[in-house]
Design a protein that fits this description.
Elements: H1 10-36, H2 39-47, H3 66-82, H4 84-95, H5 101-104, H6 107-139, H7 151-168, H8 171-180, H9 186-191, H10 193-207, H11 213-242, H12 251-265
Helix pairs in contact: 1-3, 1-4, 2-3, 3-7, 4-6, 6-7, 6-11, 8-11, 10-11
Length: 266
C-alpha cells in the first residue's frame, strides 16, 4: 500500500480519499457481480438459522422486480464480507501518513484483528442471535395474526443484524488504542466501568436494527466480555511497554514521560 506524505494540500487529500473510495467501490461491485449467480445458495445459507421459524412455508416475493432486488442486495452483502479486508485496509491507509514511523508498525496487526473481529461478530450473530431474535419477533404476532414470510423483509433484517454485530465487535480495538495511547487513561476505564457499561447498553440498543430485547441483551453481554478482554490485553501491553506505573498515569503524565524519553533518545 503506497504511503503519501503526511502534509499535502487539501485537494491532494481529497484526491487520495477519492482514489481509495474508488478501489473499495470497484472491488465490492466486481465481487457482487461474480457472487450474484450463487445468491440462491447464499440465501438458503442465510435462512438456515431461522428455518424452524418459517414453519415449512417458503418466502414470498411481492413484486416483479423483487427477486432481482433481493438477489442484488444479497450479492452486495456477501461481497462486503469478502472484501472487508480491502475496505478496512483502504480506510486505515488513508490515515496512515499522519502516523509516526513507530506507530505504523501497528497498522498490519490492527487490520488483521479488525477483520477477525468483524467475522467473529457475524459468526456470533449467525449462530446465537438470528434464531432467538426472529423467533421473538414472530412470536409477538402469534396471538392475533399470521406472519407472511416476506423474503425482502426477512433477509433485510438478517443482513442488518449481521453487519451490526460485525461493526459492534470493533469496540475492543477502539478501547485498546484509547488505553494504550493514554487518550483515555487505563485507570479511567477501570474506575468508570459503571458508566461505560451503561454506554454499551445504549450502543447495543442503537446498533441492533430490530426492536427485540433479546438481541440487545445478547449484544450487550458480548460487548461487556469484549470490553473486559480488550482491557486485559491493554494492561499487558502497557506494562510491557511503559511499566506497571503506566496503568495509573493521566494523559498529562504520559505526555511528560514521552517527552522525557524523547529527550534521552536525542
Amino acid at each position: 500500500m503506497p504511503i503519501g506524505p503526511a502534509r499535502m494540500p487539501l485537494m491532494d487529500h481529497l484526491g487520495e480519499l477519492r482514489r481509495r473510495l474508488t478501489i473499495i467501490i470497484v472491488s465490492v461491485l466486481i465481487t457482487a457481480v461474480v457472487v450474484y449467480e450463487a445468491t440462491p445458495t447464499l440465501i438458503d445459507f442465510l435462512l438456515d438459522p431461522i428455518k424452524d421459524n418459517l414453519a415449512g412455508s417458503g418466502l414470498t416475493v411481492f413484486s416483479v422486480l423483487g427477486g432481482f432486488t433481493i438477489r442484488f442486495k444479497v450479492a452486495v452483502f456477501f461481497s462486503l464480507i469478502i472484501c472487508s479486508p480491502v475496505v478496512i485496509w483502504e480506510i486505515l491507509g488513508f490515515f496512515l501518513p499522519a502516523l509516526k514511523p513507530k506507530e505504523r508498525k501497528w497498522v498490519i496487526p490492527t487490520v488483521a484483528v479488525m477483520v477477525v473481529l468483524f467475522y467473529l461478530g457475524m459468526i456470533f450473530c449467525y449462530l446465537v442471535i438470528q434464531n432467538a431474535a426472529v423467533g421473538w419477533m414472530i412470536g409477538q404476532s402469534a396471538d392475533f395474526a399470521a406472519v407472511i414470510p416476506d423474503a425482502e423483509d426477512y433477509l433485510n433484517i438478517m443482513m442488518l443484524l449481521e453487519i451490526g454485530f460485525g461493526v459492534a465487535f470493533q469496540i475492543p480495538i477502539i478501547i485498546f488504542y484509547l488505553s494504550v495511547f493514554h487518550i483515555v487513561p487505563y485507570k479511567v476505564f477501570r474506575s468508570q466501568w459503571r458508566y461505560i457499561y451503561v454506554g454499551l447498553m445504549v450502543f447495543s440498543s442503537i446498533v441492533t436494527p430490530d426492536a427485540s430485547p433479546v438481541t440487545m441483551v445478547l449484544m450487550f453481554a458480548a460487548l461487556i466480555a469484549l470490553y473486559e478482554m480488550a482491557l486485559l490485553v491493554a494492561r499487558y501491553v502497557l506494562i510491557a511497554k511503559d511499566g506497571k506505573a503506566s496503568l495509573k498515569w493521566s494523559r498529562e503524565e504520559y505526555e511528560d514521560y514521552k517527552f522525557a524519553k524523547e529527550e534521552q533518545e536525542d
